[in-house]
Write a sequence for this structure.
């Protein structure tokens, strides 16, 4: 109890001095970013959104003066307001474009231009204020996938024109120079490639391959794409499976998502791709992972589609061994159709979610921001020296407790005032002020602000 009182006193002093930063967690209202009589589109795979500091970036396919083009827009205040869209590139083929940010502060834009066989590339070194002229990166394209890491590297993965080789192009200096193709694997028929780069200098590639029915295969590089491991088959279904995405956290977990005629949705490696578990299913039938991002606790934040009409947000703990409750980001109006959800998290743990919706009659880009939500998915089991997570914080009437174990809530006098249980807890009867939550497994307290 003496330890709790000491912690309480320290928190009260820091709070009074304005030095205790408590992130506000919650979802802002939906914003419709595009409008007009013409349809807008997001990539059919991968993503075209990125964050850098207070900037949020978005590329989408639309029309400019009745001409099909790719447009770019950005926010300079973490998504609160958005600038008008500007021309980024000529028309895309099959929505095969992508926008990624590397760790050196450079934006990388890729586009399979319509009426050509070339992948065109542009980059911005000043957060989208200006863009360098487009250059031809490689030709011919098939169905490329793109990625960037947290240093100065970016990647393009594709199959060759005959479909019997998976190959990679890469830059190690933020797009000043490119090298490739580097052979990832060859000798069979391949398609549906996906790629990601983790925080350990590794690149992870997946594709579909099979003689009669396709299965999902995986290979990794531990030297930033220069050499590759022997391919490994991660699925073995009688009716086959096809790739959807590959994602990595900040440690050792790699998640492959796929689609098949069963309820299995993903397969996980907890050791950086050295070995793989058995395919798993999400706990919600009909909901699959469409895009995913990892927070600094190695928790996963995912977007999915339910019945092709509802965009759902859900978070998982380390290595995706458990999943928290879903949050529906969209309503369910009659005739609603949603497509291509994308998610990215900024440095302040804000989640930025984008999707295509048809509420206005034409397909438009919609956006919703989760303030502070991106720091929520730390491991579910109690962690020594780390207090429990409480969302939102500050809170008004309810607070959400992730995980499986209850926590005790104390006031500033060290008196127990409530026991919080996993899930949503009603705290409306508590007075406004500072409270402190502790769990038996962590040995640490979390400051909760009730307003």
């Amino acid at each position: 109890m003496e330890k709790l009182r000491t912690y309480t006193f320290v928190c009260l002093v820091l709070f009074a001095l304005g030095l205790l930063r408590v992130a506000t967690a919650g979802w802002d209202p939906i914003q419709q970013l595009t409008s007009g009589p013409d349809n807008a589109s997001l990539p059919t795979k991968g993503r075209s959104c990125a964050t850098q500091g207070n900037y949020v970036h978005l590329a989408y396919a639309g029309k400019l003066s009745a001409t099909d083009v790719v447009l770019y827009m950005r926010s300079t205040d973490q998504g609160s307001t958005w600038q008008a869209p500007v021309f980024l590139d000529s028309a895309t083929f099959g929505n095969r474009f992508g926008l990624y940010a590397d760790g050196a502060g450079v934006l990388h834009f890729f586009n399979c231009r319509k009426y050509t066989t070339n992948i065109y590339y542009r980059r911005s070194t000043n957060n989208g204020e200006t863009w360098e002229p487009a250059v031809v990166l490689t030709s011919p394209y098939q169905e490329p996938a793109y990625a960037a890491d947290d240093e100065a590297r970016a990647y393009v993965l594709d199959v060759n024109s005959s479909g019997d080789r998976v190959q990679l192009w890469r830059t190690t200096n933020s797009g000043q120079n490119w090298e490739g193709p580097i052979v990832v694997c060859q000798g069979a028929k391949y398609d549906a490639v996906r790629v990601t780069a983790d925080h350990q200098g590794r690149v992870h590639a997946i594709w579909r391959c099979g003689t009669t029915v396709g299965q999902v295969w995986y290979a990794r590089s531990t030297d930033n794409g220069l050499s590759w491991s022997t391919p490994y088959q991660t699925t073995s279904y009688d009716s086959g499976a096809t790739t959807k995405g590959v994602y990595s956290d900040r440690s050792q977990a790699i998640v492959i998502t796929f689609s098949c005629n069963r309820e299995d949705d993903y397969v996980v490696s907890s050791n950086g791709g050295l070995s793989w578990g058995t395919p798993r299913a999400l706990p919600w039938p009909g909901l699959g992972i469409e895009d995913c991002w990892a927070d600094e606790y190695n928790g996963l934040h995912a977007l999915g589609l339910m019945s092709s009409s509802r965009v759902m947000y859900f978070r998982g703990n380390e290595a995706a061994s458990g999943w928290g409750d879903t949050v529906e980001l969209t309503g369910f109006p009659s005739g609603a159709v949603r497509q291509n959800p994308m998610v990215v998290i900024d440095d302040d743990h804000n989640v930025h979610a984008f999707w295509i919706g048809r509420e206005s009659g034409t397909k438009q880009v919609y956006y919703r921001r989760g303030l502070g939500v991106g720091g929520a998915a730390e491991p579910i089991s109690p962690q020594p020296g780390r207090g429990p997570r409480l969302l939102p914080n500050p809170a008004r009437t309810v607070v959400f407790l992730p995980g499986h174990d209850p926590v005790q809530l104390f006031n500033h006098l060290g008196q127990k005032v409530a026991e919080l249980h996993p899930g949503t807890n009603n705290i409306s009867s508590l007075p406004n002020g500072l409270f402190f939550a502790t769990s038996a497994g962590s040995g640490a307290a979390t400051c909760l602000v009730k307003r």
